[in-house]
Amino acid sequence: MISLAGRDILHAWGKFIFTGVGLGLLIGVTLIMAGVYRGMIDDGKVLLDSSGADLWVVQKDTLGPYAESSSLPDDLWRSIRAVPGVAQAANATFLTMQVRKGDRDVRAMVVGIAAGDPGTPGWPPHLVAGRQITRGHYEAVADLATGFGLGDVLKIRRNHYTVVGLARRMVSSNGDPIVFIPLKDAQEAQFLKDNDAILMQRRRTEANPAFNRPGVPGLLDAVTASQTTNNSVNAVLVRIRPGFTPEEVAEPIRRWKRLTVYDRAQMEDILIGKLIRTSSQQIGMFLAILAIVSAAIVAFIIYTLTMDKIREIAVLKLIGTRNRTIAAMIVQQALVLGVIGFVVGKITATFAAPLFPKHVLLMPSDSIAGFFAVLAICMLASVVSIRMALQVDPAEAIG
Amino acid sequence: MGAGGIRIANLSKRFGEGDTAVLALKEVNMEVAPGEVVGLIGPSGSGKSTLLKCLGAVIDPTAGRMILNDTVIYDDGWKVRDLRALRRDQIGFVFQAPYLIPFLDATDNVALLPMLAGVANGEARRRARELLAALDVQHRAEAMPTRLSGGEQQRVAIARGLINRPPVILADEPTAPLDSQRAMVVIRILNDMAKRFETAVIVVTHDQKIIPTFKRIYHIRDGVTHEEAGAGLGFD
Known about the structure:
The complex is a heterodimer.
Chain A: H1 4-11, H2 13-51, E1 55-58, E2 72-73, H3 76-81, E3 86-101, E4 104-113, E5 129-130, E6 139-143, E7 153-156, E8 159-167, E9 178-182, H4 183-191, H5 195-207, H6 219-228, E10 232-233, E11 235-240, H7 246-257, E12 260-263, H8 264-275, H9 277-308, H10 310-318, H11 323-352, H12 364-391
Parallel strand pairs in A: 4-9, 6-8
Antiparallel strand pairs in A: 1-11, 1-12, 2-10, 3-4, 3-11, 5-8, 6-9, 7-8
Chain B: E1 6-15, E2 22-32, E3 37-41, H1 48-55, E4 63-68, E5 71-75, E6 78-79, H2 83-90, E7 91-94, H3 106-116, H4 121-134, H5 150-162, E8 168-172, H6 180-197, E9 200-204, E10 216-221, E11 224-229
Parallel strand pairs in B: 3-9, 3-10, 7-8, 8-9
Antiparallel strand pairs in B: 1-2, 1-4, 4-5, 5-6, 10-11
Helix pairs in contact in B: 3-4, 3-5, 5-6
């Protein structure tokens, strides 16, 4: 038996290809939306991976340092270091801001990293060019996505930083590239007031008799100094010793230090389950709508193609064609349309994904699931047409 | 009348029920022998199409008897179970317009019927080409329907009607879209094929120029038929 669907497709291949391309663009958008969602999750995981931490110690009862603000004394890390099971502990600050270079600026997450050696929690694990930060001030390591190059001079608040190293895929959960700077500079950047504000505050302090007592020399200087320095960090990143479980180490810190401690799984839950939850729900809604729109379009196309063949279907039925042969013809055409659409969509998504400003991660598993979803949608969409075709009266061929 | 062909006795068809019922066919009787071509003539609304649909096993009669190739296919409410197979194997259709499948070439349009009956593609195509040659359109065997002239399309349609060697062919206004010369060619072909394949052919027509070619004519008016002898010109 010849393939009626195949012959019809070959006969009207232009119509099928053109329709398939249109459908493919829609499928491409759907795949990219899924890629955006995967990219957001991946960005969250990359942020956690790149920190090199097993535990995140943050201000009590906060979801810091990424989802909420968190403030801890910057000397706390020493006592945490002494907790059994802690291999390394390091301060870190996180601040999302516009980083200027010349007359342009880039939105980036500025991460303050504690002095130490490569491998210290919070440090970029791998560089693709240059070196790690070796000086206590005014050096930076930037992610390639910032567009900065080695030797470029950046301006963060009032200070200038020279880019000494470049890293790859160092991004925040929002997908903003990371710029690493020394901790002290980052602490200053986080709480630095402008010059006028500092001057005004000094004057108010001088005018306050409580801080400017004639009989207490040095009090005014001490108060003024405390107002312009920042001794807080957002989190202490902890790496645990082999043989200890995260909970074994986290529990005494929670109990004795009265702090909140998150392990990797909990932090992942905060980032993915809470921070990007709304975005992912939004994308999920888009995916659902796109799937419904795709199904409606495929159904409409197949319905139109079938309507065009009503007379032929009546003739086929009159001359003894089985209903299942006619149904198979319609289903096969819907599936072919779906396959053409998927191939076009996949190619479109693959080439378009790098053009998006944020990370779009096209997972093979999503493509496979998408392929079967498209086939299922096409089969479903052909039901209306099949129903219509089977109701065609063979007598219509006679008139 | 000899064996085979088609016979209907007291065939009636009613549409609707009660006060709105319409009796489209009233105890129609008809016999067409193998190899014979008869005309079925009547004005619009006379019941021609209804009779054709009953003969083609497309709609069920309300009462009466139909015997096709010595097999009862309908008898006062009883009917054969597989009408689809009956239409495929026992009845050939030739329509006013050829209604060829536009995405199949001439050969496959003809070969489709035996393929539907389970004949292998190669064998079905061989038989189709043979028949196309008999109808003098073998040179257009690979052409798509849109590339065929009206006469060629009608010949391919006749070949499709004949390919399964049905005992009866129902031709519905087969010459309507054709000029006189081509119309006569189609009627000649139907006569030739009827004789060659021992097929009973019923031609529904309004076409005055082909009516004199029938030896027997059934007139139908208000669902009632009566038979008369035709001139039978030109096809002895």
